[in-house]
Structures are given as structure tokens and as C-alpha cells.
Amino acid sequence: MHKHHSALGLATTLSTAAGGFEIAKHGPVQPVTLIRPHAASRAARFFVEKFPGRAMYAVKANPSPGLLKVLWESGITHYDVASIAEVRLVSRTLPGATLCFMHPVKAEEAIEEAYFTHGVRVFSLDSIEELEKIVRATRSAPDLTLCVRLRVSSEHSKLSLASKFGAAPGETKALLFAARQAADALGICFHVGSQAMTPEAYANAMERVRAAIVDAAVTVDVIDVGGGFPSTYPGMEPPPLDRYFETIHRAFESLPVSYSSELWCEPGRALCAEYSSLVVRVERRRGDELYINDGAYGALFDAAHIGWRFPVELLREPDSRAKLMEFSFYGPTCDDMDHMAGPFMLPADVRAGDYIEIGMLGAYGCAMRTAFNGFGSDETVIVSDEPMASLYTGEEREVASNVVTL
Ligand SMILES: *Cc1c(COP(=O)(O)O)cnc(C)c1O
Questions:
Q1: Which atom of ligand 1 is nearest to the CA of 193?
Q2: How far is the C-alpha of 219 from the C-alpha of 278, rounded, in Å?
Q3: Which helix (H) or strand (E) segment is 345 a member of?
Q4: Nearest atom (ligand 1) to Cα of 161
Q5: Which residues contact 94 (CB under 8 A, 6 or more apart)?
Q6: Residue 297 CB contacts under 8 Å (≥ 6 apart), including other chains
Q7: 149 near 165, Cβ under 8 Å?
Q8: 61 CB within 6 A, ligand 1
Q9: Other CB atoms within 10 A of residue 384 CB
């Protein structure tokens, strides 16, 4: 996996694309984001068709309006937003969308604007203080869906979300009870952590949900299993998503909730990881270290700060025949921390002036970009070839077929 050699096809296609974007001959000086609407659309349709409930999109993973529109057109009608800026963005971009404000610690002004200006009715909370805030800000609205966020284990996930949010077992009963009084519909939500590598993560969390419902003896109308659905990266190839859905469905069916209760999920990463990749240029080689023109302060935050490994591919014509070896990357800023350990597997003869595609950056890639030190770029190109890996085709990418410039 991730070692296919369609670099030649891709470079050739890019350099001959009508009207435009030439990578091999006089290529871009700035990093370029490649976007693949068809891949996001495929992911959305997969969730819409196969998840045994409602699939929302967690906007923070990638808030680009182009992606929001693709998801909407592919059947995603509900959006998990976490800030008033995300509320405004989605309201503006998708006027028909339903918004769910799922950050458990919100500004009171944000709740008020969300409720009265943007029609938001679903809010999450993990404390009595937040519940009181929501009731005050909405002037005791009678039509709220309130989702109590439980703290669950992140042990099966690559990125923990277990310490910051979520009611602990000792606090849950009183909170569910109080939320039930204030809510038209009562929900329970959780987040197992991002990139959950096994469906067990959800089964275990659902046991926590069961205990909370039994303990509080309240009627629950919504179970929201949150995000955490994985994508695929080097060394992090998860089981098929159908297995996650089956496990969640089974656990949901056995919960003590009314027959009319709803099952929701809030994937971020799984819906957008395949949506984009990045083309960077090698500015210098020093042994097995490559100085590239994007990094920790650009779309590669996770590669730098949490050692995430992304698939890479040399875009050179003619294709290199050298053996693959391990490289690490330095980003363009003057900062030592702008370093990505990888290892990233590339042909041993990679050199300054080469272009590299870094794949699977649709989630938490572009969304994290800054302009620190004067680096970074918004140049974007739509491509219709396959992403370097996919959870939705079970296949690796074939030779690129078509490129459209924006
Ligand atoms: C970040 C987040 C998500 C999305 O998580 P992924 O791991 O990207 O699927 C969903 N819900 C909440 C509340 C979040 O904070």
C-alpha cells in the first residue's frame, strides 16, 4: 500500500493539462492543494447509505465551502459545528442545512445568536453550568434537543479526546436528570477519540451509555456516537467501516431507549481525508532530510506535532527507478519545530527541484494552515484521479486521468 508508481502518469497529466497547470516543466513555486470532490462525495454517500442512522459532518475537520457543498449535494443534511464562526459559515453556505452546536463549552452570546438568528436547536453540554447557560441564552426555549456528552475512553484511538470534555460517571446521573427537565428531546453523545482503529471503541462507549441510562432512569431520544471513524494512512490501516457500523447498530439496538429514538454520528476525518492532497517542492536535500515548501505551520501540522504519517509520492518524469528509502522533512519556516519525522518513503535519488505529492490531507490539513513567516498558499487545483488510498474503493490509485484547473 502507498507504494504504487503512478507518479509518471500524474506528472504527465499535470504537465499536459489544457489551459494550465504545469508541474513538470515550470512548476509552482508555492505548495498546491489538489482537491478531489468525487472522493468526498463517495465518502458522504457511503455514510448516508450505510450508517444505520443519521450521519452529520463535523465541520472543524475541513470547513472549506467547496467541500461543504459537495457533502450537501451528496446527502449530508446535518452539520456538527463548534463555534459561532462555523455556525455562520454553514448557515451562509448551506441555507437549508440543520446545525448542531456540539461544543460542550460555548460562549453564551454564541448560543443566543445560534438559537435566535440561525435556528440552531441542538446543543451539547457536559456540566450543569453549561445547561444553565443554554437555558438562559435561549430564554428557556421549549424546543431544544440537549445532548449530554459522556467522557469515554480513547484507548483505541490515535488522538485522545478523553480528558478535556465529557461528564464523568459520578456526574452523569444528575446532569441527565436536569437536562431531561430542560429539553424537548434528550440525547447522549460521546467521542471515542480521532482515528479509532477498532469498532470495539464504540462498543465500549455504548456500555458507558447503557450504564448512564439505567442509572439515571431517564427517557433518551438520541444516541450520538460522535466522530472518530478512521481513514487510512501508512501504518494505520483500519478494518472496513461496515464493521464499525455493524458494531454500533448492534449496540444501539440493545440499549434501553424507546423504539422511536434516533442514532446519530458526527464523522469529520472519514468524510474528508480523501478530499485533498498537497503538492510540495523540494528546496534542498541534506542526507535523508528534505527541505520542502510546506510544513508544521501549513497543512502538515499533524505530521509535525503528533508524528502523523501521510503517504507520499515523487512526481517526476520520467519516473525514478531508485529504491525507496526513509526521509524526514523540514518545513519552510525558520523554526526548528517545523520538522516532520515521518518516515516518508521516497526514491533514494530524490533531489532539490522535485515535486512530491503528500496524500490524505483533506482532514485536519488545510484546516490548520497559518501564514506564519510568510509561507503558505491558497492555490488549489481540482483533480479527478483517485486519492492515494481509499476506504471506499478498497483499491489503490490507478494512473491519473483528468485534471481541471480552478
Ligand atoms: C472533532 C470532533 C468530531 C470529528 O471527529 P473525527 O475524529 O474527525 O471524526 C466530531 N464530534 C466532535 C464533538 C468533535 O469535537
A1: 7
A2: 47
A3: strand 339-347
A4: 15
A5: 68, 69, 72, 79
A6: 331, 333, 335, 338, 369, 370, 372, 373, 375, 376
A7: yes
A8: yes
A9: 14
Q: Which residues of 316-336 are buried (b: 16+ CB within 10 A; e: fewer)?
A: bbebbeeeeeebebbbbbeee
Per-residue confidence in pLDDT tens, the chain, 406 aa: 222 233 334 444 454 443 345 555 558 899 999 999 999 999 999 999 999 999 999 999 999 999 999 999 999 999 999 999 999 999 999 999 999 999 999 999 999 999 999 999 999 999 999 999 999 999 999 999 999 999 998 889 988 887 889 999 999 999 999 999 999 999 999 999 999 999 999 999 999 999 999 999 999 999 999 999 999 999 999 999 999 999 999 999 999 998 899 999 999 999 999 999 999 999 999 999 999 999 999 999 999 999 999 999 999 989 999 999 999 999 999 988 999 999 999 999 999 999 999 999 999 998 888 888 888 888 899 999 999 999 998 654 444 444 443 3
Q: Is 27 in the pocket of ligand 1 (CB under 6 A)?
A: no
d(CA 117, CA 395): 45
Cell of 31: 505548495
Which of 278, 271, 267, 230 lies closest to 35 in space, CA to CA? 278
SS3 178: helix
Ligand 1 atom closest to Cα of residue 227: 9
Find the 18 Cα to ligand 1 centroid distance in Å.
39
